[in-house]
Amino acid sequence: MKFTEEHEWLREEEDGIIVVGITEHAAQQLGDVVFVELPDVGTVVSKDDEVVVIESVKAASDILAPIDGEIVEVNEVIVGEPGKVNEDPEGDAWFFKIRVEDMSQMDEYMDEATYKKYVG
Predict the structure, then answer these.
(1) Considering the chain, what percentage of its residues have pLDDT values greater than 90?
(2) Domains located in the chain, CATH noted
(3) pTM of the prediction?
């Protein structure tokens, strides 16, 4: 698993498919999540495009695409039950799966030990 400075995690699932979600740290900072809007399957995104809107009792945030690719699946469960993002942010409450052409983009992200130091 890799981590971004924007508190997203990326997990390679199979050849060229990356699962993306937010970290435990991000979920704690947001507070109780009350709304999640996910991208449409088939959407082609570039790194830093806005792909997810998430709202909590504290704030509204945009989640940016951490990598270039095509959205191949979204987690509809968290649309109906946004509180799951707080319950299991690094597990069942993933946001989307993206098919990636250039896996070398993953190299710029932190491993778990480095991310833990980053969030201190």
Answers:
(1) 95
(2) 7-18+29-97 (2.40.50.100)
(3) 0.95
